[in-house]
């Protein structure tokens, strides 16, 4: 299993990612009349020139649907499982059964973290590729983005590549 510091980092990553998924990403698949954070997404689009959230291509709709249906429940489960492992670690110093449960929980969690890591990493990599190859300004005449603005938008997406992909190598 990864270190306690890494576990803490990923615990807070998953907890905060719950809010990112609900408040921002879900607007790609939720009909506009049910969106209560459209203003937040519009602000993000204008601040970062995020043409993907502006355009909402069909492939992005499917990526976000997988995120909302598969990853969002997994974020809750990952956070729960990490806390469970912490509790088992405290109890396992004396108890042989707790040590066995801790080992089984670690293996189960690592498997699903890797599945999530590959899924999130590869979908984000595709988004980054699209930003680099097709980036345009979503307002006005849809002019091609400057390299500087592409890099700025890619910097917003990069943590969602690096952090999940890191899980694949635990």
Describe the structure.
The protein has 170 residues and is an all-alpha fold. It has one domain. Helices cover 76% and strands 0% of the residues. It is built from seven helices and no strands. The longest helix is centred in the C-terminal third of the chain and has 39 residues, at 96-134. The protein is elongated and about 65 Å long.
List the helices and strands and how they pair.
Elements: H1 4-23, H2 38-48, H3 51-55, H4 58-91, H5 96-134, H6 147-157, H7 159-167
Strand content: under 5%
Overall radius of gyration: 19 Å
Described by strand count, sense and barrel closure, the largest sheet is: none
Question: Which runs of at least 5 residues are low in confidence (pLDDT < 50)?
Answer: none
Subcellular location: Endoplasmic reticulum membrane
InterPro entries: EXPERA, Sigma-2_receptor-like, Sigma2_recept
Membrane topology: Multi-pass membrane protein
Protein name: Efficient mitochondria targeting-associated protein 19
Keywords:
mainly alpha, elongated, about 75% helix, about 170 residues
Q: Short summary of the structure?
A:
The chain has 170 residues and is mainly α. It is 76% helix and 0% strand. The protein has one domain.
């Amino acid at each position: 299993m990864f270190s306690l510091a890494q576990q803490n980092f990923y615990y807070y990553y998953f907890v905060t990612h719950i809010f990112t998924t609900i408040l921002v990403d879900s607007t790609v698949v939720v009909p506009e009349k049910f969106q209560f954070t459209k203003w937040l997404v519009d602000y993000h689009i204008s601040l970062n020139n995020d043409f993907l959230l502006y355009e909402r291509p069909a492939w992005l709709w499917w990526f976000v649907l997988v995120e909302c249906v598969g990853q969002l429940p997994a974020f809750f489960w990952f956070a729960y499982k990490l806390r469970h492992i912490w509790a088992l670690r405290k109890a396992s110093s004396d108890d042989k059964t707790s040590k066995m449960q801790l080992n089984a929980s670690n293996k189960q969690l690592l498997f699903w973290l890797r599945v999530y890591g590959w899924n999130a990493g590869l979908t984000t990599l595709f988004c980054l590729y699209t930003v680099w190859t097709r980036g345009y300004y979503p307002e006005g005449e849809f002019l091609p983005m400057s390299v500087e603005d592409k890099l700025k938008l890619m910097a917003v997406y990069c943590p969602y590549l690096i952090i999940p992909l890191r899980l694949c190598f635990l």
